[in-house]
Amino acid sequence: MRATTSVTRVDLGSDWTLANSVHVDVGAALAEESVGTLRRHLAEHEPPTP
Fold first, then answer.
1. Which pLDDT belongs to residue 45?
2. What pLDDT digit, counting tens, does each position of 2-49 carry?
3. For the whole prediction, is pTM greater than 0.85?
4. Could you give the angle at the alpha carbon of 38 between the alpha carbons of 34 and 35, nearest 5°?
5. 3-state DSSP assignment of residue 45
6. What are the structural domain ranges in the chain?
């Protein structure tokens, strides 16, 4: 019984780690996209520098 429990814990841990890293990757991609959009928006509305 104990062996089964620890195997389940390890499996859950691996799944959680995988899900967490996917979430971090998605978050990083969204943040990067937001920064790019913000920069374009600012560049469009900035007065041209002489």
1. 76
2. 554 444 455 555 666 666 666 677 778 888 888 889 888 888 877 666
3. no
4. 40
5. helix
6. 16-49
- In which residue are the tokens 């943040």 written? 31
DSSP codes, 1-50: -HHHHHHHHHHHHHHHHHHHHHHHHHHHHHHHHHHHHHHHHHHHHSPPP-
Nearest to 1 by CA among 9, 12, 13: 9
Sign of the CA dihedral with 36 first, then 42, 44, and 46 last? negative
Tell me what pLDDT residue 44 has. 85
CA–CA separation, 10 vs 43, rounded Å?
Answer: 49
The two three-digit tokens of residue 23, written as one number: 């979430």
